Amino acid sequence: MDDARKLATRLASALDVIDAETGGLVPPVHVSTTFARDEALELLGGRTYARDDSPAFEPVERVLTSLEGGAATLLFASGMAACTSVFLALDPGDHVIVPKQMYWGLRRWLLGFATRWGLRVTLTDVHDPAALAGALRAGETKLVWAETPSNPLWTITDLAATARLAHDAGAKLAVDSTVATPMLTRPLELGADLVVHAATKYLTGHTDVLAGTVTTAHLDEHFTRVREVRRDLGAVLGPFEAYLLLRGMRTLDVRVRRASATALVLATSLSTDARVKQVLYPGLPSFEGHEVAARQMDGGFGGMLSLRLRDEAHARETVGRLRVFRRATSLGGVESLAEHRAGVEGPSSEVPRDLVRVSVGLEAVDDLRADLLQALGAHP
Fold it and tell me: Is 243 among the catalytic positions?
C-alpha cells in the first residue's frame, strides 16, 4: 500500500478504519465462521469459510502490510504457528540455515519435529557474514532465518548484508523482528523476503492475546504455500483476538518508544554498577553490535536487555527480590518483567546461567531503576 504518512499516523488511525455500515471508528468483530450463497449458489460476499478468509483478519493484515512495506500479511494463532508455517511451506529435504542463538521454542522445534519431518537444518552464527557464507549451499539452501535483536543475548544481524548473501546463494531470508517491531526496523526494506512477529509480544502489548504474523515482500509460490499451511493446519486467529490485536497495535509507536527510552536509561545506569558483570543492550556503545543496530534501528534500540551477574545464585536471588518487575515469562507488554532465563528454559538451555532477562514496560523509570538496584543486593 502506498501511504506517505508517518508510521505513527497510520497506526493510530488503523489506516482510517471506519465501519461502512455504521460509521464506527472501531471495526466490528466478525464472528461468523461460514458465509451464505444466493439462489444461484454464488457467494454473497466472496467468502466461503472463516478458516480460509475471515473478514476479522483484514484490518490487522492491512495495517501490518503498510507498516512493513510488504505485499501481504497473514495472521496466525500464535508466534510459533507463524514461524513454523514458514518452514512447513518448504519441502522435506530442503536445506535451511538458522542461528545458533535464537528463540529457544523455535530452535527446539527445528531440531526436533522439523528434522524428523525432513528439513536439513544447519545452525550457525547467522550474524557473522563469514560463518553464514561458509554454511550456505548454493542451489540447495532454500531459507536463511535471522532473529535481530536475538533473544536473550540481543545479538544484532546486519540484515542488508545477510540478504545479499542469502540471495546470491538462491535462498530466501526470513526475519523474526519481534523485538524490534516495525517501529524500529523494517526488514523488507533491507532486503528480507519475509518478516515474522510473535504478535503476542509488542504488537498486542497487553499480555492478553496469543497471535503471530507473517508479512511477505512478494506474492510468490512460497507465500502461497504459507497461506495453505495456515488454512490446512487450522492455525488461524479468532475474531476477538484479531480485534484485540488491532486495538493494541494502535498504541504501538508510543509504547515501543517509551520502553526503548527507559531501557536505555536502565542499561546505561547498570553498566557502571559493580554488582553487574555485563549489561547486554544494543543501545550501549560498548555492545558488540551497536554500530549495526544504530544503522538499522530507527528511533530506539528496543525495550529488552539482559544482565550478566556474578553467578547463577546471584541471578536467581536478584529476580526473587524484585518488587516492581513481575517475575514472569514473555516480553513486550505494558508491565515490566524479569526472569532467570536459563531456569525457565530448563537443563538443556544454552543461555548463560548468570543471565537475567528483562522486559521493560511503561512504569516510571525511577521506580524500575530503584527496584533493580535494591534487588541486586549488597555490593561485593
Answer: no
